[in-house]
């Protein structure tokens, strides 16, 4: 009787849907098998939903990494492209081959291409371990952006959209920041322990995005993604890191992509044990 009850408990636990974020594309990693690339892509699994957030800079690398991580791209509820830059969109060329009918949410905007500015990598932090540095500290001479997004299956977003009671696609833009005029979508997830916020590049500014989801009133349990701090002066990095923790009620942070090596080390110092490494291939549990 007891044995049967324990078996039931174990099987029930196994039957529970996954609640996690898996990093599919980024330029830093501890994995010897996955392929690093400038750009971002992540799979969010929560509340029975499987959401692809961005698709990386290179469709072939996106395809390789998703296969290596056993990600079934035919089983997606929808896709969110955070913004128009090719280092977040090129994987669509592979995705639409394997899942041609999937719904894709994008900002109502035009595509913008061009190489990633090398100034993004000018500030280097050799004190960081190699797995926390872009391309392990050996940045290529040029990093081209991926291809434009197609028109198929696109739902263009002019304002925030609530997908269900727990998941909202949040739209922001700002005319006061570099690339801030680029409309950007983030994903806000309501959990029983607070909000989870997933961001692509935070071009409008992470503080504006946090304000748009009411972070001061509804604390953010976990912040994941790119914060676009690659060229931010150290004094501002320190101010922002402290503000995220003390003013914006961010409990835990898992930065990636364009946060910058200086951003990584500063946020790690401020958040301490609540800093989560979010390199390529990592699975981040959701609260």
Automatic annotation (TrEMBL):
Residues 38-257 form the Metallo-beta-lactamase domain. The keyword Signal applies. Pfam families: Lactamase_B (PF00753). The keyword NAD does not apply. InterPro entries: DHPS-like_MBL-fold (IPR041712), Metallo-B-lactamas (IPR001279), Metallo-beta-lactamase_dom (IPR052926), RibonucZ/Hydroxyglut_hydro (IPR036866). Residues 1-15 form the signal peptide. It comes from the Bacteria. Keywords: Signal. This is MBL fold metallo-hydrolase.
